[in-house]
Structures are given as structure tokens and as C-alpha cells.
Amino acid sequence: MQDFLIVGGGVIGMMTALQLADAGHSVALVERGQCGREASWAGGGIVSPLYPWRYSKAISALSSWSEGRYPELAGRLFEETGIDPEYRQKGLLYLRVDDADRALRWARDVAKPLATIGAEELYAREPNAAPGFDDALWMPTLGSIRNPRLVKALRARLERMTQVEIHERCEVAGLVRRGSVIEGVETSAGAIRAGQTIICGGAWSRGLLADIGVELAVRPVKGQMILFKAPAGLVERVVLKDGRYVIPRGDGRVLAGSTLEEVGFDKQTTSAALESLHASALSIIPQLARCPVEQQWAGLRPGSPDGVPTIGAVPGFDGLHVNAGHYRNGLVLAPAATRLLVDQLIGCEPIVDPAPYRLI
């Protein structure tokens, strides 16, 4: 029997497993499909909330802690696995921001570098940005990570750790319960038991807890994205306009996203989303019109009230914990959200006040 059992092999589940294994504990990781192939793979990899000044203090506390951890994590994973998560820190340009004054006040309050730049500096930084903008907001410290490579590297690292068991294509049917004590999960391959069970199932977390009468306010919210095959250097940094963005990769490819759709667990892509995302991308970088769309995909974000995740013990049960509901910021919050739960599990001082994230 393992010390910990984690349900869900996305970035939250795998980072939790890594931290617990680093601390010397044995871990079983159970994933219904392939590790890292749901929302963690489908996102864009921006290591910040899109408009951070519009979020609550609960989210800001986690995102601020997380942001500085990605360079170290990416370097460690590259060294240990040979897989480069491609962390890039080239800043973010905000075009046409209606609440720029609020943004600048927020930046002063949290000591975050953010400034208004004029057209000359804007187009010096991003020469292929759409013409006609007199100014922009510039955040030089923002980074991005190539999330499909991040999750691949995390899985590869866990696979090499003798104290970690990975169970993929293993459907969880329910929790193993003895009165108010949770002892593991029932799966398509039989029961898997552990001293502590952690639900990190993203948009699917609600159903598993509902089976024991626990209401978790998490729902699936579909997001569609497209990928352009573009020449290297066409786009140098993340550019955001009207809630849509383009994200460059090291090989020149450019992601454009994303939609927000309340359609349940439907992951189908649509021509309407393709047309909308294509138009948004061209309104940011017109020269993308000459680049073919190489791929379109959809993922299901774990939506939650105000985007605040639920992190901590499940009241009324012993040995059961949850880390879910990160909405659009799973990658953004992952280092801090997982550290916060692991701190509580192993008796360390929490990195931030855990109260705003508790399941009540």
C-alpha cells in the first residue's frame, strides 16, 4: 500500500506526485487516459493570469508564488529527463486595455513591473504587430512554457522514480470507503489502496466526490485553440488583445486562443471557433494570414466560482483531499497549488494562508 494515491495525471496530479516523492513518500498516480493529455496539454502555457489585476487576492497569492518557480522547474526537468519544457521569459504586450489605470495601480501595489509604452517601443518589440496602436502595456517579466513538453517531462521524471507507480488508462469507478475513512479507489484494474487519497481530476473531480455526497463546485468549460505553422521570428513574445492572445514557440509555431464555451463534456472542435480564433490572431499579427493553420484542438478547463481552486482536506472524511477547480489558470497556479496541499499533507508551514481554498 502506498503512502499517497493521486487521482488525475494532469499537471496538478503529476506535480503533487513529484513533490511527495521528493519528500520520500511512496505514491500511486491513477489516470483514466494518458498523463498530461487533457487540460494540461490543451492550454497555452502563459505563466500568469491573462489580466492579473482583475483577479482576487486568493488567485494572486498563488500565481505570484508560482511564477518564479517555473525557470527552476524547467531547468531541473531538462537536466533529469533530456526533455526541454521550453520556458521563455520574453514578456507580454497588452494591446487595447480598457482598465489600464487599474492595471498600473495594481502593479504598483504588488511591485510588479508594468508600464505604458508608446508606439515606437511597441513596434520595436513586436514589429509584426497590427498597425495603428498608439501605445500598449508592457510586462517584461512574464514567461511562457511549452505545456505539452512540460507534462511529457513530468511524466518521464516520475517514471524514473522508484517510489512512484503510474497507472494509466485506469478508470476510477469510486472511492474505497470504510465508514468515514477513505482507503483508496476502485478502478477498472481493481482496488488501489493508500494511506491518503488526493483528487486532482480537473473537470472530472466533481463526479467522483458526488458519489460520497460531497458537492464540489467544478464544471467543464471548453476552450478551443489553433496552431499556426509560422517562420521563426514572426512573433517574439506573447501578445494579448481583447481577451485573445498569440503565443510563440521556439520553433516559430504560434498558438492562438482561446474560446470559452459552456457545453458540458463536449470536446469537439468547430468551424465557428476556427474562424473566430483565426480572425483574432490576424487582428494581432496580420502576417499570420500567410501561415497555414496546422492544428485545432479543444480542452476542458475545470471551471469554478471566481476561478478559485479548492485545495485541502474533504470535511467529514479521513484520508481524502482535493486539489481542483483552477479554471483557466491550472498551469499558472500549479507550483503553488500543489505546494500548498503538500505542505498540509506532510506537516510543513503552508506557503500561503490555506483558508480561502478550503472545501466548506
From TrEMBL:
Residues 3-343 form the FAD dependent oxidoreductase domain. Its EC number is 1.4.3.19. SUPFAM superfamilies: FAD-linked reductases, C-terminal domain (SSF54373), FAD/NAD(P)-binding domain (SSF51905). Pathway: Cofactor biosynthesis; thiamine diphosphate biosynthesis. The keyword Oxidoreductase applies. Keywords: Oxidoreductase, Thiamine biosynthesis. GO terms for molecular function: glycine oxidase activity. It is an enzyme of class 1 (oxidoreductase). It comes from the Bacteria. Gene3D superfamilies: D-Amino Acid Oxidase, subunit A, domain 2 (3.30.9.10), FAD/NAD(P)-binding domain (3.50.50.60). Signal peptide: none annotated. NCBIfam families: thiamin_ThiO (TIGR02352). This is Glycine oxidase ThiO. The gene is thiO.
